[in-house]
User: Which sequence fits this backbone?
């Protein structure tokens, strides 16, 4: 419970994928929309390859509690993060999976969507764990009405690698 | 005209310090406080301020004392182990009536504990961590907005009362990004300059704060951590002087407490159960209040933002009205001891302690505990 009328979105993956970056972008875009927003993300000894989560809560009124117990939307971009991420998924809820994450058995009230975020955004950089995939998820969220498209592009423009990230958002929008 | 920013709690503290005119920062990096230091390391030199990375926290706190006596608005930030190292310096600052601000972003201890993970176990240390009879002011933010506002309040209170002020944050507040509304200009308390023959350590009334002469500006002043008279002359065996001094150091804070006492009371008048909390636990308490309302349970919540001296009236009032008081906290029950004292047997006081792993107390956990109590 984050207070009445609020929405929680969790983006999960592994260290190095840009999960924290995507959470920050999403929060900045929602903030620019005039939403009340709270962002938390992994802080500690998480390193490349271990599960990382970004949690965004937003509402039209101040967010009472920023600590997410259950989120209406959970996006998972790596199998290693799936178990922890599912603990945060509300029922009914929406689970967004990258295509290489096997869909678990879930109650019927959970809508599961699978998209090839990594396959469509992976760079040629050696060892890239899919660093544009979480940003591509934001494109899908914009299409689904969770965040304003223009504010998302504005937010991307103020961050490093704006062209690559904008391309990833557009890819996600079209998936 | 107000601006709005999206800041993590630690950034809001650093920006609050800048808005309050902090122009000297000394510290040693330690998670989960390090962003405050990083932010001020970049910002202060651009504004003509001084940033000093000390060799350890002991050097940092004593640098603050020197800088403050030279006229600077001085601040540091640290976490558990560093806060422990600063206790001696804090005691000296209390005794020498030196304005300064120490931010302790709490993590799990004792010792190295679970480094960087959230806890609220430094509450009693912030109040009582020094030897001797001594008092200071402790403030605790629960939101990023509080981080900004209470830092401004901390700097002004330190300057006004000539006392160290501790800001007791925790990792969960420090790293939660939230909107912060800014005024065009924050109020700044300016130190009064003493007249030449005014004693720098004496006052004829508990509420009067002796003006602080800046060192190096023509004032002849002795600053010592030993017991001293009104002129700063050591008096290491006179019982009367010692008693007068330590009593005045506490009384001056109590006499001005209304100026820095901050708390929120939500739904207290109709409450059947009360919840008292500070910092991150207070955020979950407020959400739990909504959950309980859906189940027909009226919970009143007191959010403490001044922790010392403790605002006693709202808790005494709550204890008179409710069946029970619940105190959720990320420690083994430190605030609960005070709430029990203030409830004075009027109602049961129940603790909800969570320590380890850095996890917040979730609203559902508080709601479940309240349901148990009501049943």
Assistant:
């Amino acid at each position: 419970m984050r207070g009445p009328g609020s929405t929680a979105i969790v983006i999960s993956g592994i260290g190095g994928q840009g999960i924290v970056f995507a959470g920050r972008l999403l929060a900045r875009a929602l903030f620019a929309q005039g939403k009340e927003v709270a962002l938390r993300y992994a802080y500690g000894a998480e390193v490349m390859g271990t599960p990382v989560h970004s949690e965004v809560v937003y509402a039209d009124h101040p967010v009472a509690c920023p600590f997410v117990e259950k989120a209406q939307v959970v996006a998972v971009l790596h199998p290693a993060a799936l178990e922890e991420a599912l603990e945060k998924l509300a029922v009914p809820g929406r689970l967004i999976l990258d295509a290489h994450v096997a869909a678990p058995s879930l109650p019927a009230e959970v809508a599961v969507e699978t998209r090839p975020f990594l396959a469509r955004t992976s760079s040629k950089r050696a060892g890239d764990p899919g660093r544009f995939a979480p940003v591509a998820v934001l494109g899908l969220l914009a299409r689904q009405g969770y965040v304003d498209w223009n504010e998302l592009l504005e937010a991307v423009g103020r961050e490093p690698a704006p062209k690559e990230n904008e391309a990833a958002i557009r890819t996600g929008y079209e998936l | 005209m107000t601006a709005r920013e999206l800041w993590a709690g630690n950034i809001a503290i650093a920006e609050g310090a800048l808005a309050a005119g902090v122009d000297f920062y000394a510290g040693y990096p330690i998670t989960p406080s390090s962003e405050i230091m990083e932010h001020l390391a970049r910002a202060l030199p651009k504004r003509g301020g001084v940033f000093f990375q000390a060799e350890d926290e002991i050097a940092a706190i004593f640098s603050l004392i020197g800088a403050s006596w030279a006229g600077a608005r001085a601040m540091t930030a640290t976490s558990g182990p560093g806060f422990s190292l600063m206790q001696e310096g804090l005691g000296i600052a209390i005794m020498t009536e030196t304005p300064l601000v120490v931010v302790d972003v709490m993590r799990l201890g004792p010792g190295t504990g679970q480094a960087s993970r959230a806890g609220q176990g430094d509450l009693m240390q912030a109040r009582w961590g020094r030897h001797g009879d001594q008092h200071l002011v402790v403030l605790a933010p629960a939101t990023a907005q509080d981080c900004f506002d209470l830092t401004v309040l901390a700097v002004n209170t330190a300057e006004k009362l000539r006392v160290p002020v501790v800001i007791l944050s925790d990792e969960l507040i420090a790293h939660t990004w939230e909107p912060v509304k800014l005024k065009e200009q924050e109020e700044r308390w300016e130190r009064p300059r003493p007249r030449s023959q005014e004693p720098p350590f004496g006052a004829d009334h508990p509420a009067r704060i002796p003006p602080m002469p800046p060192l190096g500006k023509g004032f002849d002043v002795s600053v010592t951590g030993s017991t001293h008279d009104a002129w700063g002359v050591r008096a290491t065996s006179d019982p009367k002087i010692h008693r007068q001094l330590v009593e005045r150091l506490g009384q001056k804070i109590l006499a001005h407490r209304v100026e820095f006492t901050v708390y929120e009371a939500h739904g207290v008048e109709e409450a059947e159960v009360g919840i008292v909390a500070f910092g991150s636990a207070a955020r979950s308490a407020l959400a739990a209040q909504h959950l309980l309302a859906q189940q027909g349970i009226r919970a009143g919540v007191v959010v403490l933002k001044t922790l010392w001296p403790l605002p006693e009236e709202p808790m005494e009032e709550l204890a008179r009205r409710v069946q029970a008081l619940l105190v959720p906290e990320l420690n083994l029950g430190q605030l609960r001891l005070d709430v029990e004292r203030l409830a004075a047997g009027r109602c049961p006081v129940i603790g909800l302690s969570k320590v380890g792993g850095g996890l917040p107390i979730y609203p559902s956990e508080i709601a479940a505990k309240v349901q148990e109590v009501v049943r």
About this structure: Helices of chain A lie at 19-32, 82-87, 117-121, 133-143, 149-157, 162-174. Chain A has one domain: 7-174. Chain A touches chain B at residues 1-4, 24, 27-28, 31, 36-41, 43-45, 63-67, 69 (CB under 8 Å).
